[in-house]
Amino acid sequence: MKFWLSLTLTLLFFTGCTTTNTAQPYKPTTFNLSSSKASAPTRSTTTYPGSQTEHDLAPSSPITIDSTIRSTTLAMATPTPGTSIEAPTQMSQESSPSAAFIPPPLNDDNSMIKIAVLVPQRTIKKYAISSVNSVIAYLLYKNYYFDLNVFNSGDEKAESLNQSLKEIQAGGYHYIIAPLTAEGASIVALNETQIPIFIPTLHHSTLPNAGSNILFGGIDYDQQIALLAQKTNTRVGTFEDGSSLSYQLNGYVKKYTPNVFYEKRIENAKANFKQIFKGNGSFNNASLFLNTPLVTSSLIASQLRANSLNPHVLLSTQINYNPLLLTLTQYEDRDRMYVANSIQKAPAALEESNALFGHDIVYDWVNYATNIGIDYVCYDFFEGKAERLFSEPLINNQVIYNTSLYQPGRNEFIRIP
């Protein structure tokens, strides 16, 4: 009896587990099922140079990323090999239209241009890396033999900068690209009077007594405010954030529009905008200068319309020539806005070369000025034989920009004739 009962239960068990669906073919999975342990994380290149073991990359061992620029040779390059390329066939031209002739280098390894980039990384922060990359992008685009060395002084103290200058002098470098503040530039100008130094971050008016070897590529904000002032009426107001730049811009506004009736400091985007704008009819039909950073300027423009205030115009300099302005504000917020801009169109291939390094020369004026600087440096090194890519002249040691007014349209900045 027990035997038949066990046999019956066994048959019922197998019968209940059988499905009526047609057997499906085996489909391999991309997951590794050979072990029940969690798979090791993929190796990361965020800490390049160098490599780490799987144990080092485990979640229990946090990774510390050191982004400090080392004072060491960053690049020593020769032009692309095979500069005497034979003419490609018709088939190859059609299959690869972008594969153009590589021009022979203007210099050879006996006349290699040696460039030092002096960066106080803790002071200029993101521009320490982007300025170096701008120089590399240009030199690679021009296909020159070059020796590029980066010298990170860390800060702009006299002893730090002077130590870097001594190393540059000992290395026999022909030119120095140095994105500095006014404080650092004054120290460098005092202690280096022979090697040509291009400073993309400052205008000549900042250091009017600098030596003849100091070249400046900074934006002329005086010129920009003068151009913007042509759009004002008889009632002018200013917004600023307490920075030295906004203080300088306010001074230019008063220089060209003596009838300033309103000045307001907004130090950050967390200010009480409701208290500033609600019911403040004085903003109606007023020309307002936004000498504030991008986010604050966008909030001001939005709050004016949100509180049914109708200014005559909103005016801003290069600091707000940024595509993010088009997304941080609605079109109606900026339909009466004018922005001064000194960046001109660069060769598309050079823009792409810079973009490969993660930065742009279309909207970022420091990177744009750095490209102008290295453009002039190469022109000078080759004694005028190198073709310049930028039309901005260098007069009295200052890059002269062609400034125009733009209106932020729905999807782009539109130049005003």
UniProtKB/TrEMBL annotation:
Which residues does the annotated region (Disordered) include?
A: 25-64, 77-102
Sorted alphabetically, which SUPFAM superfamilies does this protein's record hold? Periplasmic binding protein-like I
Quote the biased-composition stretches of kind Polar residues, using this chain's numbering.
Answer: 25-52, 77-98
Is Signal included in the keywords of this UniProt record? Answer: yes
Q: What keywords sit in the KW lines?
A: Signal
In terms of superkingdom, the source organism counts as Bacteria
Signal peptide residues are 1-23
Its protein name is Periplasmic protein
Q: What is the lineage of its organism?
A: Bacteria, Pseudomonadati, Campylobacterota, Epsilonproteobacteria, Campylobacterales
